[in-house]
Amino acid sequence: MKIKELFEKKRFVFSFEIFPPKPTTPLERIYNTLDELKGLKPDFISVTYGAGGSTRDRTPQIAIDVKNNYGIESLAHLTCIEATREETCDLINFLIGNGVHNILALRGDLPQGQSAPKGDFRHAVDLVSFLREKYGQAISIGGAAYPEGHIECEDPIKDLRYLKQKVDAGVDFLITQLFFDNELFYRFMERADIAGINVPISAGIMPVVNKNQIERIVTLCGASLPQKFVRILHRYADEPRSLEEAGIAYATDQIVDLIAFGVRGIHLYTMNKAHVARRIVSNVSTLRETMHGPKGEEALYEGR
């Protein structure tokens, strides 16, 4: 099933993100994680390219295995930086030929020291346009959204305009960058609605379970940290088990509040930590079951 169809049929979509192990790490490690995640019954699992595309060769095979070996809808990340049209078609054809019809179209990170993209695509919108023209409705295309604006774009209005261009080019659904302040997400949703962005938007949530993790996150994506979150970090920075518990609790509170708002989906950045995902799913299981019925007039936030 295409992810577009999942959003059409369900009021609420719950999904996970995993990343391939480093090339020096046995591939079996990710399958051990998937063995545990399968029992949590996500609607789909996305597979990243890894930092800087370092694990891109492993992404297609893992995405195919998620679909065919685990029976879970799979979303393959595809970055276009330095990619050619021919290479892109080869990869998409390989995925389609093996049952994967969902693509998250991304620009990707610029290589260190490089100031502009190389290859046939400069921006994600170029990749989206190409995929939609080439493959039509044979694939479902997702895109990235940034509640606080992209780190490389200082003007949030311009950033929203770029997002609308991606949707107009053929994006079926959006998954947001992680955020820790729900109010920022709600304001983003209001602006997106005004801008005419009318595809489902899934909120990206990452449970922070160690101090180094949050430092990397802030550096890479510029997510702001509300005072409540900062207090947790200061209190438990040197107590790893307590910080993990607090991080799970904070992410759970975010998700409960988002579901009350009527968000169309939650995309949980699992960081390949199945036990953390299990705790969060257990915490929100009752709400998830309530929301997981077919989409209809009772949907809480029909505009998304």
TrEMBL record:
Pathway membership, UniProt: Amino-acid biosynthesis; L-methionine biosynthesis via de novo pathway; One-carbon metabolism; tetrahydrofolate interconversion
Cofactor (UniProt): FAD
InterPro entries the record matches: FAD-linked_oxidoreductase-like (IPR029041), Mehydrof_redctse-like (IPR003171), MTHF_reductase_bac (IPR004620)
Top class in the EC scheme: oxidoreductase
GO cellular component, one term: cytosol
GO molecular function: FAD binding; methylenetetrahydrofolate reductase (NADH) activity
Pfam families hit by this protein: MTHFR (PF02219)
EC annotation from Swiss-Prot or TrEMBL: 1.5.1.54
Catalytic activity: (6S)-5-methyl-5,6,7,8-tetrahydrofolate + NAD(+) = (6R)-5,10-methylene-5,6,7,8-tetrahydrofolate + NADH + H(+)
Gene Ontology annotations of biological process type: methionine biosynthetic process; tetrahydrofolate interconversion
Keyword field: Amino-acid biosynthesis, FAD, Flavoprotein, Methionine biosynthesis, NAD, Oxidoreductase
Hydrolase recorded as keyword: no
PANTHER family referenced in this protein's UniProt entry, alphabetically: METHYLENETETRAHYDROFOLATE REDUCTASE, METHYLENETETRAHYDROFOLATE REDUCTASE (NADPH)
Similarity annotation: Belongs to the methylenetetrahydrofolate reductase family.
Protein name in UniProt: Methylenetetrahydrofolate reductase
Source organism per UniProt: Acetomicrobium mobile (strain ATCC BAA-54 / DSM 13181 / JCM 12221 / NGA)
